[in-house]
Amino acid sequence: MIFGLKGVVVGRGNGELWIEVNGVIYGVFVPTSLLNLSGEVILYTRLIYRDEQMTLFGFKTIGERELFDRLIKISGIGPKVALTIISTYSPAQFQKIVKTEDILALKKIPGVGPKTARRILMDIGELKFLNWDRNGIITKAIQALEGLGFGREEVQEVLMGIEINSLEEAIKEGLKRLSKR
Fold this sequence. Notes:
single chain; alpha+beta; CATH 2.40.50.140; DNA polymerase, domain 1; 8 helices; 5 strands; 44% helix; globular
């Protein structure tokens, strides 16, 4: 597994960045918000192997990668559509859309029609989307990390998908992930 890449952007084309890491250039498909990156970058990656082809996808945050992983588990959502969803909405925005069952917002995503939007809402719900706010722990952790000066959306992104048993664990994991940004 390739967890991430740290290297220098040497080019771009067709929705991907070309990143040189120790003399090897990787083609990495990224959300549209990252296509203008230059210089040294760190991307959290997911390698997809299908039909004898390997494709590498890269994300700015672990939260984006975790959302990508959950989306591609949904029937009819492939890596390209999942990447389009992440290009359209941040993980925190997507969480709000799912929580409020905003089918109109989902239909604004290129390649997502009414049928796919309903499937996303149904399947994500079955996955107990991101374990969000179990016993109010996540809300309290967000408030605590905001009190330390971190932005709300940034905190929500890093806390997405974490498995925790206590408020202390959530805050520690949040700080750990925020320090890697």
